[in-house]
Design brief:
By secondary structure, the chain is α+β, with helices and mostly antiparallel strands. The chain has 31 helices and 11 strands.
Amino acid sequence: MPVIVDKIVNDLRNRYNTAATTISKEMVFGYAALVLIFIIAYFFRILTIFRYEIILSANDPFSQFRAAQYIEQNGLFAFFSWVDTQTWYPEGRFWGKSQYIGTPLSAVLIHQFTLLIGLDIPLEVICFFQPALFGAITTIAMYFLGKELGNKKIGLMASLFLALSAGHLQRTTAGFFDNEALGILFLVLSLYFYARSLRTGSLYSTMIAGLCLGILSGSWGASTYVFNVLALHAFVLLIMKKHSNRLFVSYGGSVLIGLFISALIPRNGPSSLLNTDALVPLGVFGLIFLVELYQYIQSFYNTQPIINRVRSLLPIVVAGGILGLGILLLSGTLFNLSSKFITVIFPFIRDTTPILKSVSEHQIVVWSTFFRNVGLLIFFLPLGIYFLYEKPTERNLLLLLFGVTSIYFAGSMVRLALILAPAAALLTAKAVDQILLPFVLTFQERFALSRRKTRFIQPLSNELTAIAFSFIGIFLLLSILTATDAATNSASPPSILTVVPSGTGGAIIGNDWQEAIGWLDYNTGATDVTASWWDYGYWISGNSNTTILVDNATINKTKIANVGCMLVLNPRESLKIAKIYDVTYIAVLVSDGFGIYGFDSDLGKVPWFVRIGEDAGNIIQINEEDYLEYDSRHQYITGYVDKFYDSVFWALFTTGVTDESYDRITQYGPIEDNAPETKGFSAEYAEYADYYELAYQTAHDWIFIWKIRWDLIPPGAIAP
C-alpha cells in the first residue's frame, strides 16, 4: 500500500513539474495581455451607460429587438413564416425573407442562458450590451487570426489595435444592436479558420471555416465580401501556380459548406446560389477542380495533345461562355448583383440612385472621415502592404488582398469602415513587427550574416534600438488617446433622443420621439396607418401598436417614393395618395424650428422626398425643379421654390410652430427669399386646413402628429 501511495505522489509531482515547466513567462504575459485588451475593449464600448439611460441607439437596432422579441415568444420557425401586417402596409412584411437572423437569435440564446443560470436580465438589456460583448470578443479572435497570419506578436498588436479602432468602435458600442458586431466577429473567425485549414490541410478547420461563413451569411450582408475575398485569394494562387491539394480542400470545403448553410437561411434561400455573388466563388472552385483533375490525369496519360487541342478552341469556348452568361443574366435565370453592392464597387453610380444616396452611411468617404476611422494606423498601412507584397506567401497574400480590398471599399462607403478596421489592425501589426525585427535581432545578437554584410547592421546600436521602441511606444500611446477620444464621441446620445442646438450655443436633449411614439401606442389601433419618412419607421413600429407604410428595411422603392410625393404634393393631390394607403396620421419632425438643411429635421430631408419621389413614384409624377432651387449652373443650393410652399409638408411643418420658430425657419438662406409671409396652408388651399387636425405635439414642440379628418373631406377635394 505505501508503495502505491508513493507511486501516485511521485506521478503527481512529475505531472506538476512538467506542467510548471510548460507555463513560460511569455505565455503568462500573452494571456494577461489578452485579458487586459478584452477589458479595455469592453470598457470603451460601454461608456455610453455613464452618460445616458440604457436605450437602443440608431434605427436598425429597434427592428432587431422586435425580431428578437418575436423569436423568443413564438420560436424561430414561427419567425420564418411571420408576415407582419402592421409593417409595410398594405402588403405586410415577411420577416423571415427580409431579416438576417444572426443578431436577434444570438440575443435570444444569451437571454435564455442567463435565465437558465438564474439571472433574470430583461431581453432589452441583453440586446443593449451584446454589441460591446461581441466587439470585445472580436479582439480575442483577432489575436488568433494575427497569430495564424504572422506570429504571436502580430496577433497581440492586432488585437490591441482593433480594441482601440474608431472604425470598429462606432459599430460595436453598447446599444448599437445591429448586424455588424456579430458579423465582424464571424468575418475574423472565417478568415482565421480558412487560413488555418490552408496551412494544415485540416478537415476540421475547413468545416469550422464553412460553418463560420454560413453563420456570417445569416447575420450580415457583407458575407458577400468575405466569399469573394477568399475566391480572389484562391484565384491569385492559381495564377501564381501556388495551388495545392490543401487549397482545393480548404477553399472548396469552406465555400461549399458556407454556401450550403446560406441557402438554408430563408433570408437568402436556394435562389442565392444562382446569384452572381455566389457564382464567382463557385466558379473559382470549378477552376481549382479542373486544375486538380488535370494534374491527376497527367499522372497517367500524356496530356500534351489535349492541351494543344484546348488551346486552339479556347477563344471559341471563352466567347461562348461569355455569351451564355449574358443570356442567362438577361433572361433572369441568374440574378445580378444588388444595386447596393454594385455601387460599392463603382461608388459614383450611387449618384444616379437617389434612395441609396440619401442614406448618410452610403456616402463616399472624405479624407477626414477616413482618417478618423483608421487613426494613426493609417501611416503604417502602406508599409504593411509593402512587406506582404515583398514576400507573397499563401498567408501573406490572404492578408494583402484583405487589406487592399478593404481599403478600397472603406473609401467607397462610410459604413464599410468596419471592414477596414481588422485589416488595418493586421497590416499595422505586420508593419510594426517588420520594422522592429532588425533592432530585436541586433539586440539579441541573432543575426547570421557574412562579414561583408555586418557593416550594414552595425549602426543598429542599443541606443537606436531604444529609440525605435520608444517611437513605437509613443505611437501606441497616441493611438490610445485617439481611441479614448473616439470612444467618448461614440458615447453620443441615442438618436431616438432628439438633440437640437439651443439658442445659447449648447444643445437640448429631449425624449420627444419616445413621447410621440407613446402617444401613438396609447391612442391608435392596429387599423390606424401612420405615415412618416422611412427614417422613423423602425422606432414607430417597434414601440407602438400603430401600422406603418415604410421603414428602414422597406424593399418597395416605389412605396417610399409615393410617401415622398404624398408629403410634397399640394393637399388635393396628396390626399389621393393618402387615401390609397389608408393613412390616418402623419408624423413630422420639426426640431423646434431648426430646419436647416443637413440638421436633424424633416425640412432638411425634403430634397430626398422630391428626388426619390421623382425617380420611383408611380401615382402622381413630380419634377424636382418645381420644388428645389438651382443656380445658373443647375447646382442645387439648398433652397425651395414654387410648388414646395403649396405642399402638405410645408403646411404641416409650419402650422403648429410658434411665431418665433417660424421666423427662424424663414430666415434660413434661400427660404428667406421665397417663403410666404404667413405659415400653414397657402391661400389657394386654405380650405384644406380644416381637413388636417393637430392631434398631438410633443412637449418641446419638436414633433407634430397630424390626423386626417376623412369624415370632413368632400369627394371633390381629392384629385381624381
